[in-house]
Amino acid sequence: MVARERELKPDRSARDLYGADMRRYRKNAGMTLEALSGVVRYSRTHLARIETAEAVPPPDLSARLDACFGTDGHFGRLYRLARREGHPDQYRRRMELEERAVSIIEYAPFVVPGLLQTERYARAIFNVGNPSAPAESVDDLVTARLSRQAILKGAKPARLSVVLEESAITRTIGGPEVMHEQLRSLLPWVEGPTSLLQVLPHTHGAHSLMGGMLALSTLDNGTTVAYEESITTGRLIEDPETVRRCTQACDVLRAYARSPAETAEFIRSVLEELPHEHHP
Q: Which among 60, 259, 226 is positioned nearest to 50, based on CA atoms?
C-alpha cells in the first residue's frame, strides 16, 4: 500500500511555500523523491522533510533545484525568505539587516561566532545548549546558522573583522577532532582579502565588553547597527549614540589584540597542543 502524501499548506509560511513548490516542480517533471535525491545529492528523507516544511532547506539546495527544474533562480529567491524562519523572531530583524551589511565587526568572548563556525562545531554548541532537543530540531538550527555565512561569499562579500578572546580558541568544544577542524578553518580568515581576525590575550584584563557578544554591521546605506547577545537574550541596537559607544569599545579591543601574524601563530600553537583522536 502506497503511503498517502501529507497535504501541504503553501500559504502558511515561506518554508511551506518552498516545500510546496518543490513538490509541484518535482511532480511536473515526473520525478519521485528518490529520483530527485539522485540529482541534488540529498537523501530522500531529508527532501521529504523539506517538502513538508519540517526542515529548513540547506544553503546549497536551491541552486541545485533551479538547475534541475530550469526555474531561473526561483528557489534561490524563495530560500532567502524561508531560511529566516529557522531563527526565533528576535533574530529575524537582525538577519534582515545583516544581509545588507557591507562590513561587520564582531567581538566574541567564549565561542567562535556563528559566521565562522564549522558545521560540527555549531552542532556541538546546539547540542550542549539543549541536550534533550530532537536531532531534527538541531539539524534545522545548524542549517539556519550556516546559511548566514552566505554574506561572506559571492561577488561582493561583506568585510569581516573579528576579535576573539583567548578562551574562544583554547576551549575545546565538540572534542579534539571538531576543534581541530574549527581552528584550521579560522586561519584563512586571520588576514584574508576581506577579513581580519585577532585574538585578545587574557593579559589585557578587564574591559567594557566582557558581558557578552557584540556585532556591528555597517549597512549599504552607511548606517551602523549593533547587536549584543548574552546567554539567553539578544538585543538589536539602532540608537546612533549607543552604537557609537559600542564602536569605540570595539576599536579599543582591536588596538590591544594580537596582530594577525601573532594571532595565526597563537592558533597554530593551540592546534599543536590539541590531542588527535584515533578511530579503530
A: 60
Verify that 35 and 128 share a domain, yes or no: no
Kindly state whether residue 9 falls inside one of the protein's structural domains: no
Nearest to 150 by CA among 214, 90, 101: 101
Q: Which residue has the higher pLDDT, 79 or 159?
A: 159
Domain stops at, among 53, 84, 115: 84
Residues 52, 147 share a domain:
no
Q: In the numeric block, which cell numbers belong to residue 246?
A: 559600542
Q: Is-contact 162 117, C-beta < 8 A?
A: no
CA distances from 210 to 164, 165, 168, 230 (A): 11, 10, 13, 10
**Can you tell me whether residue 196 is helix, strand or coil?**
strand
Domain assignment present for residue 8? The answer is no
Based on the fold, state whether residues 230 and 96 are members of the same structural domain: yes
Tens digit of each residue's pLDDT (9 = 90 or more) over 35-90? 999 999 988 888 988 888 877 788 889 999 999 999 999 998 988 888 766 555 55
Domain that holds residue 93: 87-273
User: String of b and e for 231-269 (b: at least 16 CB within 10 Å)?
Assistant: eeeeeebeeeeebeebeebbeebbeebbebeebbebbee
